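INTERNAL AUDIT FORM
Audit reference: QA-55
Scope: verify that the stored structure record matches its stored sequence.
Auditor: D.O.
Record contents follow.
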Amino acid sequence: MITSLVVSGTVVCRAAAASFERWYLRGLLALARRDGAEATIAALAPRLAEVETQQQELAHEDRLATICERLVLDPLTADMFAATAAFAADPRIPPHAEALGGPLARRGLSVATFSELAELSPDAGQALVTRLAINHPLLDYELLVVGDELGTHAARPYTIPARLLPYLHGDDVCEPGVVRLDPDPTWIFDPKQRATLEELRHAMLSPGAPLIILEGCRGTGRRAAAAIAAGRSSVVLDADRITPELLPSSLRGLRREAFLRDTFAIVAGPDLSSHDAPRHHVALALERFSGPLVIVTSRQVDVATTRPTIHLRWPIPDVEHRRKLWLSYATRGAEPAGDLDLLAIRYRVGPGAIARAVSSAVAISDDALDADALSLGLRHNIGEQMGGLAQRIEVTQKWDDVVLAEDISDQVQALIARVRHSHKVLEQWGYRNKMARGAGVAAMFSGPPGTGKTMVAGLIARELDLELYQVDLSQVVSKWVGETEKQLSRVFDAAEEGHALLLFDEADALFGQRSADVKGATDRYANLEVNFLLQRIEAFGGITVLTTNLDANIDRALKRRLAAHIVFAIPDEDERTALWQRLTRTDSAPIDSDIDFGDLARAFPMSGANIRNATFSAAFLAAADSSSSISHEHLVRAARAEYRSMGHVLAERPMGRNLVVKTEKAR
């Protein structure tokens, strides 16, 4: 009798063991017939009959037989498939096959060798060769793989993929990169999401096996929604974790997995914009799926397929349901302390991002979870998603460190108010319906260098309790077509999820004027990049600050999309006096009491950044002189050095307290 195999303490694959034993005995019989060993043939025949009887009794649990039934295979092809599986799985069979078919049998089971094992007539063998020579379903689903295509069709060796071996043994492990997703009936949806879910169900049932592209932000439950709409377990390929050149083969593996499990397939986040993505192979792999296929993505994808396509937009849950999600995931015996309403208002995220944030909060917090710990957990995940494309900036300055003109200060405060009260105005007062696209805030700070543009952006982030991320242009901008847009899309997605303030310093490098006189591919692709940025800025739901010294070079269409354009000017004398005072003094620095900051402001018309540099230099001069305090003379010496570094020539060295400095521009 065939003994059952034991895997993880469970008795499984008796049918597979019987099938393998059958073809092992057939190999022995074929060799015995070749050698004319009648006694061996007589001894093996009863054993073979017993195994074949047992195999028929176990047919109801034979996964190999199930595949043959679903593909409607004829008995001869089904036997060839079973023998190939036995050849790959049972180490006793390959030596017999090699003795029958020669060295080529090491690569798989050929029709010629199988004909000897199964005692086929010449006509039956030729018919089998013909069936496998065309696009047979076993080859189409890659359940049979050609080991060597150089030989003749009759001598061509066949084997099975590695995935099929554990499947036949009853193991439910998935293809590499593929995971199983079960629908969760307890999932929380808001009204807009429920409406989209119904559209998704209807699309899945529509004729023609459509390709459904479900667009939406990461972590908002797109995959779960697809599984729930399908009403059964699904298999998901996370294409974000696969290199572009391997995507076609991974899609074929997903198709095979969906067939073996008789389930629904989902492709998550395919990147078809990279120069490495073999688009025609991807399109071919997508077209070979027999049933509906869902692609979930955070950006538009052009799959270049001839299949009917349906585009749906998956919305972010509303504030009320975001609060329910935070409460559902973060409750550990008691409701988290703190303002969960503020947490729900501030972070426009979905269940996936919330679950990950809660896990991070649990890992870093020793105490019970509260709103602050949950917020911190979410922020910890932003940097990883940025992937080095933007750097987190630690804001150490305070509002006392900056001096702004009254009108500029008013504009800055109005910008802060626009962000702080956006939920009230847009949601409660209904103004979101009046907006063209996104509900984000984009502002541009322009003006000469050193006037505090970047510093004010950091202070705004600190005032609003936001993380400040400065986009690293050296990492974002790429020579490859479409790569810059992909990197920027990743930055915007992460910033929107984590409610971070994005800072584009020297923004004219990215947002320059589009050229109407396109003379080549360089101009055309530069225009495409600016077009993408304009659309992404408008659709962005977060806060973007662009700083530039050359606002005349910024594309005019961007200026129309700005919530605020604040022009920073060189500080006047009174402002410079205040800057000298604030930047010189610290909580512990020894400062002479008789310093005339007004004289310094009159003598040196510099920006705030230059004044800050001068105060630092004065402190180091005082330390080098072993002085007990920073004196007026130290500040004058440092200011003169800074002024010269700005490109000015000092006509005379000032003496005493009353500074009369004649300067001219360096030539």
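Auditor finding: record pair retrieved intact. The longest helix spans residues 14-35.
Action required: none
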